[in-house]
Design brief:
The chain is of the alpha/beta class. It has a single domain, classed as TIM Barrel (Alpha-Beta Barrel). Helix content is about 40%, strand content about 15%. Strands 1, 2, 3, 7, 8 and 9 form a 6-stranded parallel beta sheet that branches. A 3-stranded parallel beta sheet has the order 4-5-6, sandwiched between helices. Strand 1, helix 1 and strand 2 form a beta-alpha-beta unit. The longest helix has 19 residues. It is globular and about 45 Å long. It starts with 5 loop residues before the first strand and ends with a helix. About 40% of the residues are buried.
Length: about 240
């Protein structure tokens, strides 16, 4: 695969009813997305079956456990149930294959990676940020930017935790104070457009609503959309291409 290839993928977690607004904006800018939907969620209500089917008609749906529970709080059998049963329920409800999984809260261990694989998912999406490489970790898909304004300390911690040292050096001056995710998108995409790479935008519709980030979110979509040299893919389409390069 040509290392100059440029890919953009997006993903949206938790199955909140306002995901339909994200879907409408993705449609407006002719972009693709993967929506990770739990069956139930005590933190925020999950969209009803009608909305889920509407989104599933145009976008990929991924598993996000049965009860939106952190897998590191569960024993093996409970974790296996949360992972495998969410796949079964979604496949039965939607009548289509569910290939992508997302770890609630980004919490997982090697045990959980194995369970995701055994359940028949192709990969588990993490919440690790600032990843733009076309290279994949085994059974894991990282992200580039969250639709949320993280502090410089959080961004730097993501780099250090995941040994992404180069972004710290390259963006040293940008890591002072709170960072605007639209500005960080501009920085990362400027580099990707020159060298090639993967840009993965993710977030939560309830979070965008809570912090009034819809204007910034649409600004990012405008920045990313309608470029002929970019391949716009779902998470699974992205995984299949990169895992075979």
């Amino acid at each position: 695969m040509d290392k100059k290839q440029i890919i953009i993928t997006t993903s949206w977690d938790d199955g909140y009813a306002l995901d339909i607004r994200i879907a409408e904006l993705l449609d407006k800018y002719n972009m693709k997305g993967t929506f990770y939907v739990p069956i139930r969620n005590n933190e925020n209500p999950v969209m009803n079956a009608t909305l889920l089917n509407d989104i599933a008609n145009k976008y990929e749906i991924g598993g996000h456990t049965v009860n939106h529970i952190y897998l590191n709080t569960l024993g093996k059998s409970e974790a296996n149930y949360e992972i495998s049963e969410c796949k079964n329920i979604l496949q039965n409800q939607l009548g289509k294959q569910i290939d992508a999984f997302c770890y609630p809260g980004g919490k997982y261990s090697q045990r959980d990676i194995n369970l995701v694989k055994e359940a028949g998912f192709l990969f588990g999406r993490t919440t690790r940020l600032l990843h733009t490489s076309l290279d994949l970790h085994p059974y894991l898909m990282d992200t580039s930017i969250q639709a949320y304004n993280h502090s410089s300390s959080v961004l730097t911690a993501h780099c250090l935790k995941n040994t992404f040292l180069f972004p710290i050096v390259q963006n040293y001056f940008f890591y002072k104070g709170n960072k605007n995710f639209a500005k960080l998108t501009e920085i990362l995409m400027s580099r990707i457009m020159t060298t090639g790479g993967l840009f993965h935008l993710w977030g939560h519709s309830w979070e965008i609503e809570k912090y009034g980030l819809w204007k910034e979110f649409e600004m990012v979509l405008e920045m990313l959309a309608f470029q002929q040299e970019i391949a716009y893919l779902t998470n699974t389409e992205c995984w299949k291409i990169l895992s075979n390069k």
